[in-house]
Design brief:
Layout (H helix, E strand, L loop, with lengths): L3 E4 L9 H17 L2 E4 L11 H14 L22 H13 L3 E4 L3 H13 L15 H9 L5 E4 L6 E6 L3 E6 L7 E3 L7 H11 L4 E5 L6 H11 L5 E5 L2 E2 L15 H6 L4 H9 L17 H7 L10 E2 L2 H14 L2 H14 L5 H6 L1 H9 L11 H9 L9 H5 L5 H13 L4 H14 L4 H13 L7 H8 L1 H9 L3
Parallel strand pairs: 1-2, 8-9, 10-11
Antiparallel strand pairs: 3-4, 4-7, 5-6
Helix pairs in contact: 1-10, 6-7, 9-11, 12-14, 17-18, 17-21, 18-20
The protein binds one RNA strand of 76 nucleotides through strand 6, helix 6, strand 11, helix 11 and helix 19.
RNA sequence: GGCGCUAUCGUCUAGAGGCCUAGGACACCACCCUUUCAAGGUGGACACACGGGUUCGAAUCCCGUUAGCGUCACCA
């Protein structure tokens, strides 16, 4: 039997990295086993779901390299893959539960429930539905109907029992049903609630394994009750530890650390993000000798559910940075230039047309910073002095390096620059010649030139940047200081 | 608060009772390389939350404590 796993986001915003983290495990597992990975939209929250988000989610998922075998966009044998298109199905299953007596019509108003809630709160007890409508007679129901009251469908939770399952990553977990109140499966408007819709969907889509975030552990007993009442086979269920911020809290949307899209904009490479997240809560066998640099293909070949860890993990940005830098350095210059281009254009330093018109030069420029940047978004600030002439001067740099003493040296170099053959070795030879003649140390010669032509004290190799900035512009920039 | 989950270096983790004097990676520190900054190389510091058991022997098994997190919605 092949496995069928799924990812089921809500189209209420851009896709979250936490969502992708568990989706990644599901996807790798499906690919490893030759099973199916299904995409389904859970859009029963009419307030927050917006169809526009669906396209945004597809885009980010594709950017990451994820693909799905069935989904709202491509269809499949278990269509539709959007919950709002499956309402008839939920109603049918809900009716079965009503007929079998597992659920009952509840006519309680919001106000009545709020009062109950306060009552429990006052006694410092966890709120549970009091069961006012649990045993209504047909006459009482008719009376409520006559009043024009709407009803929801509530599950009649059995008392004094245990429900449990064998978690794929955590082992046996049990809950007393007494800790669960009679929950609602159908709203008064006929739209199902999450816990009911997922069960119907996972069962009818024949999902074999559900691997989801640990936040769902407490939903599991509720869903188990529904599976049992419906007489459906329960899939294998497992819960993966969450990814958290440094403070072990939630990844913040506001700080731009939650959405996949944020990382994309910050110049992270999808393969780095995927590789990094794959190692949060999982290690391949033989992890003791430290191979953490795995391509997606390698991950697909090695993923093993039994090696998923239980504890939550901190999304450690410094490690992501390191990994992203590694991936950047592994790109060819051509690839790196293509990846960096949109960021450079967005910074306003050049236009795409201009860069492409001078493509070899542009490539040579970005090549100089390829092993110095951690993200693509850092490229512009490292290469601005190649692309513009009005340079900002780093604080204190001019006073420290562009002194009176350096002027004679500058004048000699400028003269040399006028006639030197324009290649890096010749430029280096000429400048070093003047350094020796005047017996100057690098910090009295190379460093001042660097400051004069870049406006700062740190840059790629001096002779390479002189070559790339060009004869005229280098001379002009140096001439300002002598 | 009830219920539930979790607990090895700062971080991600290896570890399935003796192989552990606890291994690797990121970060950190030092040194090397070097025109600066990176990259690279070498080395270093750093952990089994606590308390009880079980056992000849426990990071590994059991119990408790503590801490963190999740959940108790006509959200998902």
């Amino acid at each position: 039997m092949t496995i069928r796993v799924r990812m089921a986001p809500s189209p209420t915003g851009p896709i979250h990295v936490g969502n992708v983290h568990t989706a990644l495990f599901n996807w790798l597992w499906a690919r490893r086993e030759g099973g199916q990975f299904i995409l389904r939209f859970e859009d029963t929250d009419q307030e927050r779901s917006k169809p526009e988000w669906e396209q945004v989610i597809y885009d980010d998922l594709k950017w990451l390299g994820l693909d799905w075998d069935e989904g709202p966009d491509i269809g499949g044998p278990y269509a539709p893959y959007r919950q709002m298109a499956r309402l008839d199905m939920y109603r049918e299953y809900a009716n079965r539960l009503l007929e079998s007596g597992h659920v009952y019509k509840c006519y309680c108003t919001k106000e009545e429930e709020d009062e109950d809630r306060k009552e429990f709160q006052a006694q410092n007890k966890p709120y549970q539905y009091k069961g006012r409508c649990r045993n209504l007679t047909p006459e009482q129901q008719a009376a409520f109907e006559a009043e024009g009251r709407q009803h929801v469908l509530r599950f009649n939770v059995p008392r004094g029992r245990m429900v449990g399952f064998n978690d794929l990553v955590r082992g046996p977990i049990e809950f007393p049903t007494d800790s669960i109140g009679d929950f609602i499966i159908m709203r008064s408007n006929g739209i199902p609630l999450y816990n009911f819709a997922v069960v119907v969907d996972d069962a009818t889509m024949e999902i074999t394994h559900i691997l989801r975030g640990e936040g769902h552990i407490s939903n599991t007993p509720v869903q188990l009750l529904i599976y049992a009442a419906l007489g459906l086979q329960v899939p294998n269920i497992g819960h993966v530890g969450h990814m958290t911020n440094e403070e072990r809290g939630k990844l913040s949307k506001r700080k731009g650390e939650a959405a996949v899209h944020d990382y994309r904009e910050q110049g992270y490479l999808p393969e780095a993000l995927m590789n990094f997240m794959a190692f949060l809560g999982w290690t391949p066998p033989g992890g003791e000798n430290g191979e953490e640099f795995l391509t997606v293909e390698e991950l697909k070949a090695k993923f093993d559910i039994t090696r998923v860890t239980k504890a939550p993990s901190i999304f450690d940005k410094p490690k992501l940075n390191w990994m992203n830098g590694m991936y950047i350095r592994r790109k060819t210059t051509e690839e790196f230039a293509e990846l960096a281009l949109p960021f450079v254009v967005a910074s306003g330093l050049t236009t795409e047309e201009e860069a492409r018109a001078n493509w070899d030069w542009f490539k040579a420029v970005v090549k100089e910073v390829q092993e110095r940047v951690v993200t693509l978004a850092e490229v512009p600030q490292h290469i601005d002095f190649f692309l513009k002439d009005d340079l900002a001067m780093e604080d204190g740099a001019a006073g420290k390096f562009l002194t009176e003493a350096v002027k004679p040296f500058f004048r000699q170099v400028i003269e040399g620059l006028k006639t030197v053959e324009w290649d890096v070795p010749a430029i280096e030879k000429m400048i070093r010649g003047h350094m020796e003649a005047l017996q100057l140390k690098p910090k009295e010669s190379i460093q001042p030139i660097r400051v004069a032509i870049t406006g700062r004290t740190a840059s790629p190799g001096l002779f390479e940047i002189v070559y790339l900035i060009g004869r005229e512009r280098t001379i002009r920039r140096m001439a300002k200081y002598c």
